[in-house]
């Protein structure tokens, strides 16, 4: 494979990107020094942004990077400008709806605006660095290794708890009550027919987050047979064997989280895999043929228990019934018992109810958006009307909701054009790196539509832009080689 830059004995930027991608799934990993809690992944993320500023300010460094990266993000920059414009109109819009707290509104705008601009800077930095076959390969291996280690630790946690009742990775939350700091243990054991199981979370912050990352791992494993030969680089044997032989384990571990959202993401992921598999790509093993056995085995592992639980939820122990009652079954069941919109709100979690409420009562926002923090500003109105005791800041379940309430359909159209451009070679069957596209695209789509890991979303976004640039370079290289021959 051709390279666009000479190899060096130590590549700081590449090590920084690989470390960030590897640590991303470990959302509950932190280094504690006294009262200070240091998140390694967040530290590396800040270093990436600082490195981007350094690249942009230092001319000698800036000239080594291609301007094509910024051209790829051109449409995204226009969407960001549009978001700024709509943000200026947000206070007037929300005040007409009864939002009177200027401080809270400005807080939402500032926090969400800064956060997403930081994420965008992270994506640009990754796209600048990960534009060569060797670097893209290391990034993909880092992603697979991090997700696999998270799964192995979850398996170990489940085995140890079942055998001894000890939770290796308890979920702790710090709360203040009556002026005192208290530590709450949020680990949730589940009893089924006299046997105690743990809602496994590994080193993720909670079981549903662990289930989300397991679903991403399932996608990577599913396409691994196609990916492993793309670059021709040597893979770590342990990782290659693990990725090709244990897709059934990932399905089983998703089930061990007892997460309704995790099951929904799993089914959605299967649908996307089927849709992407319908289009045969040049030089790519069709995953619907090569991994059909793995897909069937995984489905047989996860679907029968799910069906059993859904049918017998009224006869199962209270803990399991509560898990099912906090998922899609409760949401759809509410439609059968009452057609009252207000009653339906009460069956939802506050954030989910806020989405429905705002779609019904402020449909124009879906078209034009309200800029940064738009969803939180509108949702707080709903919270105060229906959940007066709810003190947390409103947040969206997935980044798609945040985007549509920020830039509306106007911005969505721009983002769709952006994705169409960076996937152009893949969708037209000309891609040299075709197996990588479905992996990154499916992870991005699941983040947008179902449940989000925002940092991983922007990491995959930056990596996808880098892949598209590398793909274009390789295609030109091979065409020139063939024409010269």
Q: What's the layout of helices and strands?
A:
Elements: H1 12-23, E1 31-33, E2 36-38, H2 40-57, H3 59-62, H4 68-72, H5 74-96, H6 102-129, H7 133-164, E3 172-177, E4 180-185, E5 189-192, E6 195-198, H8 207-222, H9 224-227, H10 237-245, H11 247-256, H12 260-277, H13 287-290, H14 292-311, H15 318-325, H16 328-337, H17 341-346, H18 350-361, H19 365-368, H20 374-386, H21 399-422, H22 424-427, H23 436-449, H24 454-484
Report the helical percentage.
55-70%
Structural class designation? mainly alpha
How are the strands ordered across the major sheet? 1-2
Radius of gyration: 23 Å
Count of β-strands: 6
Strand percentage: 5-15%
Q: Unreliable segments (pLDDT under 50, ≥5 consecutive)? A: 281-295, 315-339
Query: Number of helix segments?
Result: 24
Rounded mean pLDDT is 77
Describe the structure.
By secondary structure, the protein is mainly alpha-helical. It has 24 helices and six strands. The chain has helices spanning 12-23, 40-57, 59-62, 68-72, 74-96, 102-129, 133-164, 207-222, 224-227, 237-245, 247-256, 260-277, 287-290, 292-311, 318-325, 328-337, 341-346, 350-361, 365-368, 374-386, 399-422, 424-427, 436-449, 454-484, and strands spanning 31-33, 36-38, 172-177, 180-185, 189-192, 195-198.
């Amino acid at each position: 494979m051709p390279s666009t830059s000479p190899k060096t004995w130590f590549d700081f930027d590449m090590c920084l990107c690989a470390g960030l991608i590897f640590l991303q799934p470990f959302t509950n990993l932190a280094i504690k020094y006294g009262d200070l809690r240091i998140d390694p992944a967040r530290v590396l993320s800040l270093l990436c942004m600082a490195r981007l500023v350094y690249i942009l300010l230092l001319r000698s460094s800036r000239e080594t990077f291609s301007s094509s990266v910024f051209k790829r993000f051109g449409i995204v920059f226009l969407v960001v400008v549009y978001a700024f414009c709509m943000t200026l109109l947000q206070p007037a819009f929300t005040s007409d709806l009864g939002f009177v707290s200027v401080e809270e509104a400005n807080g939402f705008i500032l926090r969400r605006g800064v956060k997403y601009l930081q994420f965008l800077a992270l994506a640009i930095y990754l796209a600048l660095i990960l534009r060569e076959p060797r670097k893209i390969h290391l990034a993909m291996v880092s992603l697979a290794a991090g997700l696999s280690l998270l799964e192995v630790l979850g398996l170990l946690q489940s085995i140890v708890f079942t055998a001894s009742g000890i939770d290796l990775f308890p979920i702790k939350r710090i709360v203040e009550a009556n002026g005192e700091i208290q530590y709450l243990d949020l680990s949730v054991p589940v009893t089924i027919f006299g046997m105690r199981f743990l809602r496994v979370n590994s080193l993720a912050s909670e079981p549903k987050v662990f289930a989300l990352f397991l679903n991403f791992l399932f996608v990577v494993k599913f396409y691994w047979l196609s990916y492993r030969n793309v670059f021709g680089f040597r893979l770590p044997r342990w990782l290659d064997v693990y990725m090709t032989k244990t897709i059934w384990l990932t399905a089983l571990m998703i089930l061990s989280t007892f997460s309704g959202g995790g099951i929904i993401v799993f089914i959605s992921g299967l649908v996307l895999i089927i849709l992407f598999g319908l289009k045969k790509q040049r030089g790519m093993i069709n995953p619907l043929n090569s991994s059909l056995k793995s897909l069937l085995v995984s489905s047989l592992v996860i679907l029968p228990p799910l069906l059993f639980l859904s049918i017998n939820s009224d006869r199962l122990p209270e803990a399991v019934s509560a898990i099912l009652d906090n998922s899609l079954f409760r949401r759809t069941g509410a439609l059968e018992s009452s057609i009252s919109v207000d009653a339906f709100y009460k069956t939802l979690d506050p954030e989910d109810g806020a989405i429905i409420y705002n779609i019904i009562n402020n449909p124009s926002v879906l078209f034009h958006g309200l800029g940064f923090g738009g969803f939180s500003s509108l949702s707080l109105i709903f919270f105060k009307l229906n959940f007066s005791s709810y003190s947390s800041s409103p947040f969206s379940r997935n980044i798609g909701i945040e985007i549509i309430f920020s830039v509306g359909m106007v911005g969505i159209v721009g983002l769709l054009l952006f994705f169409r451009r960076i996937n152009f070679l893949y969708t037209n069957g000309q891609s040299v790196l075709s197996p990588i596209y479905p992996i990154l695209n499916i992870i991005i789509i699941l983040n947008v539509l179902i449940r989000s890991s925002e940092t991983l979303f922007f990491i995959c976004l930056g990596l996808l832009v880098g892949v598209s640039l590398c793909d274009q370079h390789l295609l030109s290289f091979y065409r020139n080689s063939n024409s010269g021959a």
